[in-house]
Amino acid sequence: MNPKIVLSSTSQLIDQSLKLQITGLKSNQQVTIQAEMQDDVKRTWHSFASFIANHEGKIDLDKTAPKEGSFTNCDPNGLLWSMQIKDSNTHFPPCKNEPSI
Fold first, then answer.
1. Per the record's keyword annotation, is Nucleotide-binding included, yes or no (predicted)?
2. What is the reported pLDDT for 89?
3. Structure pTM?
4. With contact defined as beta carbons under 8 Å apart, do 53 and 25 qualify?
């Protein structure tokens, strides 16, 4: 067994689907994928999804729905749009809608 993560591109536009596959797994092996990023105000965002490899030992985010995680349907961009703020005590910065004088 020699697991390998295959990402079709390291640079893509926001409206393009993420092409991510994991190969070289055992048949029916469970794998959890996590994504994490920090925004410009230093908040950490994260998401995760657990998948079961197919009979070929492969997980393809285009074709495989997670068994559990921050999203539930088959979606190649699910790890991106389902991110939540890691520290639940962190709030969005205040919106400044004060009138100009």
1. no
2. 52
3. 0.76
4. yes
Instruction: Say how many residues make up the chain.
Output: 101
CATH 3.40.50.720 is held by the domain 4-10+18-85: no
Domain boundaries in the chain? 4-10+18-85
Bridge partners, residue 35, by sequence: 47
Neighbours of 43 (CB within 10 A): 15
Compute the Cα dihedral for 51, 55, 57, 63 and give only its sign: negative
Residues 91 and 39: beta-carbon distance below 8 Å? no
Q: Tokens 């088959």 map to which residue?
A: 74
CB-based contacts of 2, cutoff 8 Å, min separation 6: 24
Map tokens 């991510």 to a residue. Answer: 20
Tell me the one-letter amino acid at 65.
A
